[in-house]
Here is the input.
Amino acid sequence: MKRDLVFDFGLHKGEDTAFYLEKGFRVVSFEANPELAQACRNRFSAQIETGKLIIMEGAVAPASAGDTLTFFVNERSVWGTIDRDWVERNEKAGAASKKIIARRIDVEEVIREFGMPFYMKIDIEGADQYVLEVLASFPDRPKYISIESSKEDLGEVIAECDRLRALGYSRFKAVQQEYIPGRQGVFTRRNGEQFSYTFPADSSGPFGDDIRQSWVSYEGILDDYRTIFRKYRWLGSDSPLMQLPGLHKLLWHAGKLANIGFPGWYDTHAALDDE
Here is the structure.
């Protein structure tokens, strides 16, 4: 494991990569949308020149997809995907996509080239499970890993937690994402220096022990998600109650003030046992 290395699967506009760089990590970031990739090459030109950042432009997919594949660029840029089911879901939500051809990125080759990272953020709509499958072929694992979790299917979330446990992860956190934008904190760089940071819109936030909530066991994370899905049933974006005018906004502010964490979505963070 390369303890100074982070993989950012889902570069987008660089919201998370900027934080990892600020922490003092080397970063390899992945982005299939060529416009976003170019914008980040411009934004992080200094870090690219010094070797602190490498941007891999292309779509993460298994070898069966071929050397190139269709990527769907969505008008909501965070919803770009290779998964046609996700495209249909996005269209039902009123967000149209356009097709481009992207080169395929082989995750196994990337790991062999750069090494196993200390932390791996996985947020690549519809291709997250492929990355977990690749990890199973390596004896080493990232110390920390995170993956965006479903809001629609508790069984799918449980299956993700099962995969993470099979990879050797034993400590978990269900991290509410709705209130991360605008959150401020003081963090420690790898060299021990402290710095202040404010997370922008579309950021996934901190990782590992920088997340200020306790780690729980496998059984604990399943209990947490069962509670979360009970909230979704009554307070999720598709629930009849949430169709009442103004209620979503009211509950959003109330949840933020009370630190309850609804409505919203979650990332599952996992950690290996301390050595």
Q: What stands out?
A: Residues 1-142 form one domain.
